[in-house]
Amino acid sequence: MKNEVEYGARGILGLLVPQANTTAEPEVQIMLDPDIALLTGRLTSPQPEMRERLEDFLTNIDQFIATFSNAPLAGLGFLITGSTYHFEHSEEDAYFEQLSQRYGYPIVSAGQSIRRAFAALGVKRIGLVSPYPQWLTERSAAYWARAGIEIIGIESPQAVGGFHNIYTLRNDAVLAAAERLLPLKPDLILLAGAGMPTLAPIMSLADRGCVAISSNFCMAWQLMQMPSGDYLNRQSLERLLQPEAPWRAAFRLRYPAACNV
């Protein structure tokens, strides 16, 4: 990636996140390599119900991309899985490829990012940590099943309430839900939902020998693959999963209070 402005010598990337999401941007931002700049736009909807908001976020995606105006983006991530769970995978891939062609830079969805991680790692059996209401958990499970993934267990973290049930989840609750899946010996644990905190649980689980990924983790990986276009590169993903991955030190430095699990 080349850049004509001061910040982001390796390029400027865009990220679209739901309007009140307090988790996705910090987690993706902290994982990016040096000299990559990230601009974040908000997916907004006046609808009071989640079902309708999820539909609005996808239906109006051109409107949200337009908020970046003529910023020299080198790529864009659509970081919400719930809006695309209804897609067949071929339809989702075609939809975002069409967007990429129209805007002249790669655009990837959260669902694509996770599916590519599964493919790169050869994952077949997963444990799912879902922060969603039951109807959306069922959509999520069906989406992964269509990818040929066997879901051997589903757990939900304990909600604490507040302005939004997902965004107020805490690391210890997410980790506890993941730990309940460990006896099932999954290939990997998926921490679903871009609004749920995941980086500290991913670190803790990795240190115990269990691979865990999330929407935000996979989106950061995919954004960093945009210069090469090698979206299934296993080595690049495995580097992010290593105990010495640079993002871990950056995360501890930037958010020390979150590293408490």
Secondary structure blueprint with pairings:
Layout: E1 12-18, H1 24-31, E2 37-43, H2 50-59, H3 61-65, E3 73-78, H4 89-103, E4 107-109, H5 110-121, E5 125-129, H6 134-146, E6 150-155, H7 171-179, E7 188-191, H8 199-207, E8 212-214, H9 215-225, H10 234-241, H11 246-254
Parallel strand pairs: 1-2, 1-3, 3-4, 5-6, 5-7, 7-8
Number of strands: 8
The residue ranges in which pLDDT falls below 50 over 5 or more consecutive positions are none
User: How do the SSEs run, as a string of H and E?
Assistant: EHEHHEHEHEHEHEHEHHH
Strand order of the largest sheet: 2-1-3-4
Query: What share of residues are in beta strands?
Result: 15-25%
Determine the structural class based on helices, strands and strand pairing.
alpha/beta
Write a short abstract of this structure:
The protein has 261 residues and is an alpha/beta fold. It contains 11 helices and 8 strands. The longest helix has 15 residues.
Descriptive overview:
This protein is of the alpha/beta class. It is 42% helix and 16% strand. The chain contains eleven helices and eight strands. It has a four-stranded parallel sheet. Strands 6-5-7-8 form a four-stranded parallel sheet, sandwiched between helices. Helix 5 (110-121) packs across helix 9 (215-225) and helix 7 (171-179) packs across helix 8. It is globular, with a radius of gyration of 17 Å. The mean pLDDT is 93.
